[in-house]
Amino acid sequence: MKTKFTLYLPIILALVLIAGILLGYKLKLTSSGNSPFFQLNTRNYSKLNDVVNYIVQEYVDSVSKDKLTEEGIQGILDNLDPHSQYISTKEYHEVNDPLLGNFEGIGIQFRIEKDTIIVIQTIVGGPSEKAGLAAGDRIVYVDDSLVAGVSIDNRGAMKKLKGKRGTNVKVGILRRRIPDIIDFKITRDVIPTYSVDIAYMPTITTGYIKISKFSATTYDEFNSAIEKLEKEGMQNLIIDLRGNTGGYLKAAIDIADEFLAEDKLIVYTSGKNQPKELFYATNKGQLENNGIVILIDGASASASEIVAGAIQDNDRGLIIGRRSFGKGLVQRQLDLLDGSAVRLTIARYYTPTGRCIQKPYDPEKGFEEYYSESYHRYLNGELEEKDSIHFNDSLKYITPGGKVVYGGGGIMPDIFIPIERGEEFRYYNDLIQKSLIFRFAFEYTDKNRTDFKQYNDFESFNKHFKITDVLFKEFIIFGEKNDVTKNIEGIEYSKIKIKTLLRAYIGRNLFDNEGFYPIYLSMDDTFNEAISSFSNTK
């Protein structure tokens, strides 16, 4: 009902307004003439406010003025563009905290498995680690409220565990091999969140940095990562922006600046009510002489596309992967007095060659097609074959080095990496879609935590822990029990991938991202192409 109301809200408001004016005119003839519906020349007149008040006062059933107002705002924004949005008071911290670089809570990574909150990792130095919580603990109670077996979701769990710094929360824990519930009192604190997932050296001269979002702390995290990698001998760098949906414009500009010579254009923005603003590289770039490759895919958007566009349009490095999302709109957030906010699109941004990479949208048709466009890329074969992508010649641009690039729908990589698709991948894809490799790895890690204590660090784990054929057979049986039919040909074709991913997930359960990416990336075609590219270029 809510969706339907929002969809037709402008029509409803128009009809109600007409009825209100007509009714007001009739009232004016029989009253003192003070009806608010005739104050049309008043300087601060609000038609929307009048309609909402009229509905609240006269509607046949009780309605919430606050709810009407919020849905009215959402209805207005829904008719502008896909990225202008209303953020309610309840959603405010959930939406904004990831971009601030910290939140206030107890400091754990968790997942909900079999209707139970399970601790994956405690944040090093955080409140939970200090209190004694450990990976594998099951949270049964929070402040005497049962949270296990009650269908709690991630949002509900975070709502109970997050809170203001200095406040206390009591959690009841079930720990393997201990029959009774253990109670912990945890004092909440500021918990840092990181946007650089990992920085390490996959070869003796090449560094790799994975950036998951562009937050308030991303540039500082990036600089710390660069300092670490340079000490280890980094000459070339791979920045992985796959799956990075964006964030702060400034963070993207600052990172691009590190690779570009002074006065090179990074990006410019322009809007009807915003003057054109150009952002140039400064003389502070630390990495102007390093080789650079940017990895992107269909989920790389906004700030990710600004970095990729700046590198590509200045002929500074290679972009490898698949076409990015295509978000060329800039939002500014207005915080409202009740704790809610509006993010309004105020400008478009343009890459150095002058292209706007925003993909088309039509407010009158709604935005369902806009957001499902990535699925259509899959259907029309774009993800498998570069030649299936067709750009309009009117959107063609030329870089200073003579390279042809296109606007109007994301950043097209210099080197295209197709997805692997075929009947032989059906078995493997079924496992992935049902998260069975992830689930098996977690359950195996959880059951064998004592045995895994022999690995003091990731290097030891990576060198000595293997997926044996016995363990692999156990996983195949696990797949059958979870409705993935055994397929001999599919198993043989994907055996190496399955074993690699099992090791990677077990590594992540034990050593976080440092235990995951070095294993996982070994079978990543896009990453391996990036490594090869440094060997093939001067």
Top keywords for this entry?
single chain; 538 residues; alpha+beta; Pdz3 Domain; 2-enoyl-CoA Hydratase, Chain A, domain 1; 4 domains; six-stranded antiparallel sheet; six-stranded mixed sheet; 20 helices; 21 strands; 38% helix; disordered N terminus
Provide a descriptive summary of the structure in words:
By secondary structure, this protein is an alpha+beta fold. Residues about 1-40 have low confidence and may be disordered. Helix 8 (about 220-230) links the parallel strand 11 (about 205-210) and strand 12. The protein has 4 domains: about 1-80, no CATH class; about 100-190, Roll (Pdz3 Domain); about 210-415, 2-enoyl-CoA Hydratase, Chain A, domain 1, CATH 3.90.226; about 425-525, no CATH class. The termini are far apart. The protein is globular. The strands form 5 sheets. Strands 3, 4, 5, 6, 7 and 8 form a 6-stranded antiparallel β-sheet that branches. It has a 6-stranded mixed β-sheet with strand order 10-11-12-15-16-21, sandwiched between helices. It has 20 helices and 21 strands.
List the helices and strands and how they pair.
Elements: H1 2-7, H2 9-30, H3 47-58, H4 65-77, E1 85-87, H5 92-100, E2 102-105, E3 108-113, E4 116-122, H6 127-131, E5 138-142, E6 145-146, H7 154-161, E7 168-174, E8 182-187, E9 189-192, E10 196-200, E11 206-211, H8 218-231, E12 236-240, H9 249-257, E13 265-271, E14 274-280, E15 291-296, H10 303-313, E16 318-321, E17 329-335, E18 341-350, H11 368-371, H12 373-379, E19 396-398, E20 404-406, E21 415-416, H13 426-433, H14 436-447, H15 449-452, H16 458-464, H17 469-481, H18 488-511, H19 517-520, H20 525-536
Parallel strand pairs: 11-12, 12-15, 15-16, 16-21
Antiparallel strand pairs: 1-18, 2-9, 3-4, 4-5, 5-6, 5-7, 7-8, 10-11, 13-14, 13-18, 17-18, 19-20
Helix pairs in contact: 2-3, 3-4, 9-10, 14-18
